[in-house]
Design a protein that fits this description.
Oxidized Rhodanese, domain 1, 13% strand, 184 residues, alpha/beta, 5-stranded parallel β-sheet, 8 helices, 7 strands, two-stranded antiparallel ribbon
Length: 184
């Protein structure tokens, strides 16, 4: 199944023509920092076929947005696999929506998940190298493991470290607005 993508401008045209269901599949912290004003938060890790069936009844189109488009595409694939039709990914994600002039709600600035992954991976590679050099050469496997994980993430566009970091307490929001449907 191919994911259909539309531009932020096309999304706004459809919004101006009537209500739309736009879901943002980023983490609650990312959503809190900045989101399209009429988006509903449904984090990718909570987007299951059961949630899809409960929250998105009928055949109305569902529009999906993330930060830059990658997680949105994964969410669209999950929605299509669950039998949902009329699913559209927003090209370029929330960043492109902001550049296109869509209404954006800004909140507290946070460190992006991508940046957290780079910091954690860099720290673990440096730690593994230092431990391997100064303590025991076998501890160099830490760097090898992280390097392999980064290659896997690049090839599959799935980041296990990012998924783990997204569940950390500093990436959670009090009064989580998750699944706050429907905004139109």
């Amino acid at each position: 199944m191919n994911v259909i993508e539309i531009t932020p401008a096309e999304l706004m045209e459809r919004k101006n023509a009537g209500p739309v269901t736009l879901i943002d599949v980023r983490t609650p912290v990312e959503f809190q920092e900045m989101h399209v004003s009429f988006a509903n938060l449904v984090p990718l890790d909570t987007l299951t076929p059961q949630v899809v069936g409960e929250k998105f009844k009928g055949t109305d189109p569902v529009y999906v947005v993330c930060r830059s488009g990658s997680r949105g595409k994964k969410a669209c694939e999950a929605l299509l696999a669950s039998g949902r039709t009329n699913v559209f990914n927003i090209q370029g994600g929330t960043l492109a929506c902001a550049q296109a002039g869509l209404p954006i709600t800004h909140g507290k600035k946070v460190m992006s998940l991508e940046r957290q992954v780079r910091i954690a991976a860099g720290f673990l590679v440096a730690l593994g190298s230092l431990l391997g050099f100064f303590v025991d050469p076998r501890l160099g496997f830490i760097s090898t493991f992280i390097g392999c994980g980064l290659m896997f993430a690049g090839v599959t566009d799935t980041c296990g470290m990012g998924m783990m970091l997204a569940k950390m307490p500093w990436n959670r929001v009090a009064n989580n607005p998750s699944c706050s449907l429907p905004k139109t």
